[in-house]
C-alpha cells in the first residue's frame, strides 16, 4: 500500500519498521492516573504533586517540586498531541517555562530546589528541541504510541532509496542556480508532505490495532 520513495522515506523516519503494529502503545491516561496519588510536597508535607496548572510549585509553601515523570513533552509544552504544532506558541511556552524554572532564578534557594530547577530546565529544553523539528516530533509521537526505531535501522534501509538520496545530494551540490535548488526543494517537500500524511494514518491504525487487541481479550 505504501511503496516507492514515500514508503522508503517512512522507513528512514522509523514510521514503517517491521512489526510496527504489534507493539503496545503507552497509555494516554498515565499522567491523570498517577496524579490521583497526590504525592506530598518534599518541603512542607502538603499535597505538592501533580495538580491544577503546571504543577511546578507547592500550592502551600511555593517550593519547587520535582519533575512529573508521567508527563509527556506535548503536555509539558501545552501542545496538542499531534504532528502539526504551532511553533510560535511552542516558542512562547518555552520562554515562559524557562522564566519559571531556569536555574538562574534559584541561586538563593535551597540545594534541593536548585537540583529540581536543573532537571526542569533540562526537560524543558529537551521537549522544546524535540517538538520544534518535524522529524524528532514525528518520532517522539510514534514513541508515545509504542513505536521505536530499532538499533541499526540506517543499515536496513532499501538501497534504491539510499541511491535516490545520494543523487539528490549530488544534484544539490552541483546546482548553480536558484531555479535548480528550488526544483530539488520541491521534490523533497512533496515527499515530506506524503510522509506526514502517512504518519497521521499510522496513528489511527495504531489506535484501531489496540482496540482489536482489547476485543480479543475474553470477557471475565
UniProtKB/TrEMBL annotation:
Record keyword Chaperone present: yes
Keywords attached to this entry: Chaperone, Signal
Domain Co-chaperone HscB C-terminal oligomerisation: 157-190
An example Gene Ontology CC term for this record: mitochondrion
Pfam families with a match to the protein in the record: HscB_4_cys, HSCB_C
InterPro entries: HscB, HscB_4_cys, HscB_C_sf, HscB_oligo_C, J_dom_sf
GO terms classed as biological process: [2Fe-2S] cluster assembly; protein complex oligomerization
SUPFAM superfamilies cross-referenced by the UniProt entry: Chaperone J-domain, HSC20 (HSCB), C-terminal oligomerisation domain
Position of the signal peptide: 1-22
Residues covered by the HscB tetracysteine metal binding motif domain: 39-65
Record-level Gene Ontology MF annotations: ATPase activator activity; protein-folding chaperone binding
Statement: the UniProt record of this protein carries the keyword Transcription: no
Family of the protein in this entry: Belongs to the HscB family.
Protein name according to UniProt: HscB mitochondrial iron-sulfur cluster cochaperone
Organism expressing this protein natively: Ailuropoda melanoleuca (Giant panda)
Taxonomic placement: Eukaryota, Metazoa, Chordata, Craniata, Vertebrata
Amino acid at each position: 500500500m505504501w511503496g516507492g520513495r514515500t514508503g522508503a522515506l517512512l522507513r528512514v523516519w522509523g514510521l514503517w519498521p517491521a512489526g510496527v503494529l504489534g507493539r503496545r502503545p503507552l497509555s494516554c491516561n498515565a499522567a491523570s492516573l498517577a496524579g490521583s496519588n497526590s504525592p506530598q510536597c518534599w518541603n512542607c508535607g502538603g499535597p505538592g504533586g501533580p495538580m491544577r496548572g503546571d504543577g511546578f510549585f507547592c500550592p502551600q509553601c511555593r517550593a519547587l517540586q520535582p519533575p512529573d515523570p508521567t508527563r509527556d513533552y506535548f503536555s509539558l509544552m501545552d501542545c496538542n498531541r499531534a504532528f502539526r504544532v504551532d511553533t510560535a506558541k511552542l516558542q512562547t511556552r518555552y520562554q515562559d517555562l524557562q522564566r519559571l524554572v531556569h536555574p538562574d532564578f534559584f541561586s538563593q534557594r535551597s540545594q534541593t530546589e536548585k537540583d529540581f530547577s536543573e532537571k526542569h530546565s533540562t526537560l524543558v529544553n529537551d521537549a522544546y528541541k524535540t517538538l520544534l523539528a518535524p522529524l524528532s516530533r514525528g518520532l517522539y509521537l510514534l514513541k508515545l504510541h509504542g513505536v521505536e526505531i530499532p538499533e541499526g535501522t540506517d543499515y536496513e534501509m532499501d538501497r534504491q532509496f539510499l541511491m535516490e538520496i545520494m543523487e539528490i545530494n549530488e544534484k544539490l551540490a552541483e546546482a548553480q542556480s536558484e531555479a535548480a535548488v528550488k526544483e530539488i526543494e520541491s521534490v523533497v517537500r512533496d515527499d515530506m508532505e506524503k510522509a506526514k500524511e502517512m504518519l497521521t494514518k499510522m496513528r489511527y491504525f495504531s489506535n484501531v490495532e489496540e482496540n482489536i487487541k482489547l476485543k480479543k481479550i475474553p470477557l471475565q
